[in-house]
Amino acid sequence: MQLFEMLVRLRGLSPTFSRVLLTRLVPRIIPLSDGMGVTVQEWSAERCVLELPFRRKNRNHLGSMYFGAQMTLADLAVGLLLFQHFPMDRYGGVIKRVEADFRAKGKGALRCVAELPDDVADVLNDARVNDSGKAEAWVPMQLTGPDGKTVTEVRTLVAIKRFGPPEKQA
User: Fold this and answer.
1) Which of 96, 114, 94 is nearest to 50 (CA)?
2) CATH assignment of 3-162?
3) d(CA 45, CA 123)
4) pTM value?
C-alpha cells in the first residue's frame, strides 16, 4: 500500500489526525519545504488547502513573502491533491509550466487553495486509458493573505504519465 492510499484510509477514520500526520510528512517527502512551516489545513479528494506562516525564512529582502516560498506552497498543494488520484507507483506527475499573477504583497501568512475542477479531472484521467498514457491540464490555485484577499493567482500545467498498460474502462 502506498503512502497516500494509507493516508486516505486514515482520513476516513480521523480527518484531523491525517492532516497533522501529513503536515509532519511533507518535509520528508519534499526536503526543500523543511523549515518553511507549511501546515495542511484541509485535504480531500477535491481540495487541498495549505498554509505558509510569515516568518523570516519565507520572506524576501522587501519584507514580503518570497516568490520561491509562494511557488513551493503552490507546488505542494497541487502535488498533495493529485497524488491521491494518481498514485506514485503507477503514475508520474510533474509541473511543466507555472504562471503567476501577483495581485498584492504577501505581508502575512498565506493560504493556498488547490481544487480539481471536473473538466481538469476529466482531462487528466484520460492518462489512465489512452494509448500514450499521458495527459496535461492547467490547475488553477489562489494564494490569499490573512484578510482573505488574493495575493497571487497561480496556474500550473500538470503532466501525468502512466507507467504500464492502460486501465480497463468501466
Assistant:
1) 114
2) 3.10.129.10
3) 16
4) 0.90
> What is the spatial distance between Cα 161 and Cα 170, in angstroms, rounded to a whole number?
20
Check if the beta carbon of residue 70 is closer than 8 Å to that of residue 110. yes
Amino acid identity, position 78:
V
The three cell numbers locating residue 66 = 518570497
> Tens place of pLDDT for every residue, the chain, 170 residues?
577 788 888 888 888 888 898 898 888 888 888 899 999 999 998 999 999 999 999 999 999 999 999 999 999 999 999 988 898 888 999 999 999 999 999 999 999 999 999 999 999 999 999 999 999 999 999 999 999 999 999 999 999 999 989 988 76
The Cβ-side half-sphere exposure at 149, using a 13 Å CA radius, reads 9
- Sheet with 134-144, edge to edge strand ranges: 39-43, 47-52, 110-115, 134-144, 150-162, 91-102
Sequence-distant (≥ 6) Cβ neighbours of residue 7 within 8 angstroms: 18, 21, 22
